[in-house]
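Lab notebook, design round three. We kept the backbone fixed and only want residue identities now. Task for the bench partner: fill in a sequence for the structure below.
Input structure tokens:
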């Protein structure tokens, strides 16, 4: 009987240690903003996505051991022009009827001299491509804040509408605020 109690105590202690090592945060459209800027010769348009769901898991309090998984509701796209937002939802761009979500799953977060580099797989229109981008990640006063700005080539995911009239490069912005509870 004493051995059983010791074994159960050890299992309980290990379970507490492993669960305490990971801190999981919920990503929502309220605490996570994904924005874009699309350019063309005579101007630019801004927009973003209003709905998303995902998690950020930090292991052992080390921000370089963060895992991010997020699903973006492509139908929640908005733009500075309502007509453009409607066009972005059709098959020329996001094809929300057939591709209702875009996803990002990190594969690596590295700390460098000037911040972090996040690498992961971005899936748009059913195609998954690796992306790497610089980010600032801070952990202060009970809040983790992630800010990033980078570009992707939309044509790599099959968005070729307007090629030559609309820039292939789209600037993406990410702003996340996670509160420790």
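Proposed sequence:
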């Amino acid at each position: 009987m004493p051995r059983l109690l010791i074994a159960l105590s050890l299992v309980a202690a290990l379970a507490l240690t492993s669960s305490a090592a990971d801190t999981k945060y919920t990503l929502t459209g309220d605490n996570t903003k994904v924005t874009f800027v699309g350019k063309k010769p005579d101007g630019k348009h801004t927009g973003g996505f209003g709905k998303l769901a995902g998690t950020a898991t930090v292991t052992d309090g080390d921000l370089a051991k963060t895992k991010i998984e997020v699903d973006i509701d492509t139908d929640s796209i908005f733009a500075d022009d309502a007509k453009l937002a409607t066009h972005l939802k059709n098959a020329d761009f996001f094809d929300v009827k057939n591709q209702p979500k875009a996803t990002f799953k990190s594969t690596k977060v590295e700390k460098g001299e000037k911040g972090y580099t996040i690498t992961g797989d971005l899936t748009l229109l059913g195609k998954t491509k690796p992306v790497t981008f610089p980010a600032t990640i801070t952990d202060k006063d009970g809040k983790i804040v992630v800010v990033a700005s980078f570009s992707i080539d939309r044509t790599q995911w099959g968005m070729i509408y307007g090629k030559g009239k609309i820039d292939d490069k789209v600037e993406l912005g990410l702003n996340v605020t996670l509160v420790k509870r």
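Keep this in mind before ordering anything: The domain at 23-179 is CATH 2.40.128.110 (Lipocalin).
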